[in-house]
Design goal:
single chain; alpha/beta; UDP-N-acetylmuramoyl-L-alanine:D-glutamate ligase; nine-stranded mixed beta sheet; four-stranded mixed beta sheet; globular; disordered N terminus; kinase activity; transferase; Ribokinase-like; PfkB_dom
């Protein structure tokens, strides 16, 4: 089991995860089967790992790095977008697979809930050969996107990165990423990996799925007996911070009127990790995460604003 590390350390945040192209379609009311549904459609850079990295940079982390895999078709565009967001990308260009694409269907009703159609493409073709222990030079925290666990090559890469971080004493965090994919992977397989982490950042639904408990408070407490620090993200209900089996502390959400909830959890994670690196305790870091999540849901897409753009 990992050891909880909360004190700030001078160093970088390395994110290993996914870069994808998001096609965001915002529609009003239910989709009309067999005919047209009017929608406002935008093509935007996305991917859970890339979003986390961008939000960490946006909320004050001075050195954010990203390892990801993209296709030839959009590699240059994604690199420009990441650099503009303050991230230092190391993008492996896949010679055969296209960049991953996610179609985000966003209902523009009050909750702004979204449904994803995902073609992972090159994003989950990261493999151990893409890793070098030198990637950890100067790194104070490693964050893994949970999507890495859902294909064999990228799961092996995640194992390689985790083992290297453990040898170097670098704390490791992970966001489970998708309740649907967790079901396909298997809870037991996920938990076998998770027990070596220092920080786990599930959604409320993922925490309940991983424990079989209906109450997210109980679920967060149970998970924190496996992983020293668990932060369960609960959207409009804020977050739950649980340490080593203790009673979880509820951190309230920041007020927001949502337009698009895509990437809100990534925004939370990025801001949370940036705050930990700056020396905040987990509760204060979670409050920063809630503020970033509130900012995210008021924007279309999963990324923060770039300095030179609205």
């Amino acid at each position: 089991m990992g050891q909880e590390v909360t004190a700030g350390r001078n160093g970088a945040l390395l994110v290993v995860g996914d870069v994808v192209t998001d096609v965001v379609a915002r529609h009003q009311g239910p989709l009309a089967a067999g005919t047209d549904t009017a929608a406002a459609i935008r093509t935007l850079p996305g991917g859970a790992g890339a979003n986390v990295a961008c939000w960490a940079a946006h909320t004050g982390c001075a050195d954010v790095r990203l390892l990801a895999r993209v296709g030839v078709d959009a590699a240059a565009w994604h690199e420009r977008e990441l650099v503009a967001a303050g991230v230092r990308p190391r993008l492996v260009v896949d010679p055969t697979a296209p960049t991953g694409t996610v179609i985000c269907l966003v209902d523009t009703s009050a909750a702004a809930e979204r449904t994803f159609l995902t073609d992972s493409g090159a994003s989950l073709r990261l493999e151990p050969a893409d890793w070098s222990d030198g990637l950890l030079d100067g790194v104070a925290r490693l964050h893994l996107s949970g999507y890495l666990l859902f294909t064999e090559p990228s799961r092996e890469l995640a194992e390689t990165a985790l083992a290297a971080a453990r040898r170097c004493g670098v704390p490791v965090s992970l966001d489970p990423a998708s309740a649907g994919f967790l079901v396909r992977l298997g809870v037991d397989r996920f938990l076998a990996f998770a027990q070596r982490l220092d920080v786990l950042l599930p959604s409320r639904a993922e925490a309940c799925l991983l424990t079989g408990l209906p109450d997210p408070v109980d679920a967060a407490a149970k998970l924190s007996r496996l992983v020293p620090l668990v932060v369960a993200k609960a959207g409009a209900d804020g977050a739950l911070v649980a340490r080593s089996g203790g009673t979880p502390v509820r951190v309230p959400a920041a007020p927001a009127v949502p337009r698009d909830t895509t990437g809100a959890g990534d925004a939370f994670t990025g801001a949370f990790l940036a705050a930990l690196l700056a020396g905040a305790d987990p509760e204060k870091a979670a409050a920063e995460g809630c503020r970033a999540g509130a900012q995210a849901v008021q924007r279309v897409g999963g990324r923060p604003p770039c300095p030179d753009r609205p």
